[in-house]
Amino acid sequence: MDRxxxxxxxxxxxxxxxxxxxxxxxLATATGAINLGQGFPDxxxxxxxxxxxxxxxxxxxxQYPPGIGIAPLRDAxxxxxxxxxxxxxxxxxxxxxxxGATEAIAATLLALLEVGDEVIVFxxxxxxxxxxxxxxxxxxxxVTLRPPDYSFSVDALRAAVTAxxxxxxxxxxxxxxxxxxxxxxxxxxxxxxVEHDLIAVTDEVYEHLVYDGCEHVPLATxxxxxxxxxxxxxxxxxFSMTGWKTGWVCARPELVSAVRTVKQFLTYVHGAxxxxxxxxxxxxxxxxxxxxxxxxxxKRDLLAGGLxxxxxxVYPQSGTYFVTVDIRPLGETDGLAFCRSLPERCGVVAVxxxxxxxxxxxxxxxxxxxxxxxxxxxxxxxVRLKGxxx
Length: 390
Ligand code: PMP
Ligand code: GLN
Known about the structure:
The chain is of the alpha/beta class. Helix content is 42%, strand content 14%. A seven-stranded mixed β-sheet has the order 2-8-7-6-5-3-4, with helices on both faces. It has a four-stranded antiparallel β-sheet with strand order 9-10-13-12. Strands 1-11 form a two-stranded parallel ribbon. Helix 2 runs antiparallel to helix 10 (272-282). Bound molecules: 4'-deoxy-4'-aminopyridoxal-5'-phosphate and glutamine. Glutamine (GLN) binds at residues 19, 21, 38-39, 175.
């Protein structure tokens, strides 16, 4: 995408401009359209978390917490990794609390990459990956996930490895496609990491938003991966509190120490009361997580059905709260132009996934809709989208 040069901005950040999420949310606010663009729910998460945050503030937990994160949250993260994925981490040396997954990703990449190193990412990639890689002075090499099932070619993955490759960055469940990588796909990635002695960085923020009987497999659970993986997640998606920005890193002590060295100079620490709240969330019973996924899957069905009725090709998804469509059946080819015109045409905002691709052609006709909204909002959006063709 052509973007004007930004004065004063360092060369390596030129072209990043304003994020597509900010642009599209501003468009939704300006036009009063239904915002199915930026990924945030329109209802609050569990009351237990609200009470825990308020209780922590009232109890005077309002000064700097420890740089590594408060012990109750590190314990809760370790327990959660064991309860859901059978992964064992020492809460004192193998868990680090961060300001959301975003900071965890930035700190990890800044800690592990030398200038000129290469990172393999799967495109479409979450925008902060590209920015953090650029900040580190490293280069990305993309492996393309292709619809309808957003699978990738293992040959393309192998071909992307060079002598400069240091990290493979994996996001599953995947934003923006909603793809949940299968065990076989993850095993192929693991084999490449082991063979070439690469570090895997995994973004698992949608670990609990998985549907249709699919399973989330943390890469760190696969043979040879536990000690070469930096596992990242956060509370935003699992507890529908995206504004609280509480995240964490799990890895072996040497990797956590490296990430922590950088992290302490980015934010030093993350908000104490929210750490208590996230700990309460991670300790919610299994039923909470199961119900969240059932509810989201039914919203997915509602919106995906509406998008199909409106004439889009809707690609299957089984995780996250995003669904992608191909706009070509509507006679459109440019997702960015389409999304910019959509509020005016039908009062709905979506996100063009083209901005998450280096291969512009692969991404051009694809658009992402977010379904983690109240049912009545989705129902209204469906009616409006249908108006596009009638
Ligand atoms: N990774 C992915 C794939 C995301 O979609 C997001 C945004 N929700 C993040 C990371 C950022 O997470 P956080 O808000 O915890 O920083
Ligand atoms: N993760 C959210 C999304 O994909 C957006 C977060 C952000 O605005 N950076 O829509």
